[in-house]
Design a protein that fits this description.
Length: 319
C-alpha cells in the first residue's frame, strides 16, 4: 500500500464571520455534517474515510460509491450528511455516526442513506500532493477527475455574491454558508482567516466535563451537561446546557457518561443546585447560544448534537 493512502491529515478549519461579498471568494453551502477526509485508491479498490479524530469510518457508510466518483487515486475533503427534505438532519446523521453493528449499518444505509459532499482535493496520483496550489486550481483538478454519483457529489459554489447565497440558504432552512478565498492554499489542522463560516446563529463546540443529576421525568439520567473549553493547559467552565435533548438521548448518553466518571473535576469546583458528577474530558458537543455573558458563560444554551468528529483539543476558548 502506498504511503499517501496511510497518512493522517487534520482538516483545514475556518473562523467565524458576518456575511459579505467579494470576487476573491468562493461561496458554498455549509453542510454541517461529519467532516471527513477520504483516501480513495481506485486502482486497488481500497477506501479510507478519516474523521477529525482520525477514526476510520468508511464501514459505516457502505452506500457511498467513492470508487466510482473518481477516475484516479486521490485524497479528497468533504462532509457526510444525511438529508431529509433537502436539508441536513442532525439526528439521522448522529444515528449513522454511532452505529457499528453490521446488520444495523446495512439497514440504516437503505432507510436513511448518507451523501458525501466533496469540496476539496489534496492529492492525485497524477500530480502528487497539491495542498500548496490555490483553491481555484484544486477545484479545477477535482472537477476534471470526478463525476457525480448517486451518493457522492461535488459541492457546488458561487463566486462573488456571498450575501445573496447566505440569504437564500437561511431562507430554505440551512445553517449558513462557507466563504473560501480562491487563492488560499490548504493548511492542514489550522484555523485560517482565508476560510470563513457564515452562520445564522451562534454555535460553539464544547467539552463535556460532567453532568448534574436529573429528577422527575429525568430521574436516573441527567438534568444538564457541564461544559468547558480548553484554556491553556487546563479547562475553563462556561456553563451548563439542560435543553435540546430527546428522551432516547437522555437514556443512552447517561450510560456513556457513567463509564468515564471520575472523582475530581478538570475545572475549578463550582456550586450547583443539583449534585454534579465529573467525567474525563472525552465527549464534544455543539451548543447553540445567544451570547457570552461578561462572566464568560453561555447565555441561553441549547444542545444541538454530539460531535464525535471533533477532538477535545479543538474546543479552545479562543475559537
Amino acid at each position: 500500500m502506498t504511503k499517501w493512502f496511510e497518512q493522517n491529515i487534520a482538516p483545514m478549519l475556518a473562523v467565524r464571520g458576518k456575511p459579505f461579498s467579494s470576487d476573491r471568494y468562493f461561496y458554498e453551502i455549509k453542510w454541517d455534517g461529519t467532516r471527513c477526509i477520504s483516501f480513495v485508491d481506485v486502482e486497488n479498490k481500497k477506501l479510507r474515510m478519516q474523521n477529525r479524530r482520525f477514526y476510520e469510518i468508511s464501514h459505516r457508510y457502505p452506500e457511498l460509491d467513492l470508487l466510482d466518483f473518481l477516475s484516479e487515486n486521490a485524497v479528497v475533503d468533504g462532509e457526510v450528511v444525511v438529508l431529509k427534505g433537502g436539508r441536513p438532519n442532525f439526528y439521522a446523521l448522529q444515528e449513522r455516526d454511532h452505529t457499528d453493528n453490521k446488520l444495523r449499518i446495512s439497514f440504516l444505509s437503505k432507510r436513511m442513506p448518507a451523501n458525501y459532499l466533496v469540496y476539496d482535493i489534496l492529492y492525485t496520483s497524477s500530480d502528487g500532493w497539491i495542498m500548496d496550489l490555490p483553491l481555484a486550481e484544486r477545484r479545477k483538478i477535482l472537477e476534471e477527475i470526478a463525476s457525480n454519483t448517486e451518493r457522492v457529489l461535488i459541492s457546488e459554489y458561487v463566486r462573488g455574491d456571498g450575501e445573496k447565497l447566505y440569504e437564500r440558504a437561511v431562507e430554505i432552512g440551512l445553517e449558513g454558508i462557507m466563504a473560501k478565498k480562491a487563492e488560499s492554499i490548504y493548511k492542514p489542522g489550522r484555523r485560517s482567516r482565508e476560510w470563513v463560516k457564515l452562520k445564522k446563529s451562534q454555535t460553539i463546540d464544547c467539552v463535556i466535563v460532567g453532568w448534574t443529576e436529573g429528577e422527575g421525568g429525568r430521574e436516573g439520567s441527567f438534568a444538564s451537561l457541564i461544559l468547558a473549553l480548553k484554556d491553556g493547559d487546563g479547562f475553563r467552565y462556561i456553563g451548563r446546557v439542560g435543553t435540546g435533548f430527546d428522551h432516547r438521548f437522555l437514556q443512552e448518553f447517561i450510560e456513556k457518561l457513567r463509564k468515564i466518571e471520575v472523582e475530581k473535576p478538570v475545572i475549578e469546583r463550582t456550586e450547583f443546585e443539583r449534585k454534579p458528577h465529573w467525567v474525563k474530558p472525552f465527549y464534544v458537543c455543539e451548543v447553540e447560544f445567544l451570547e457570552f455573558t461578561k462572566g464568560g458563560k453561555l447565555r441561553a444554551p441549547v444542545f444541538v448534537r454530539l460531535r464525535n468528529d471533533k477532538s477535545v483539543s479543538e474546543c479552545t476558548y479562543d475559537q
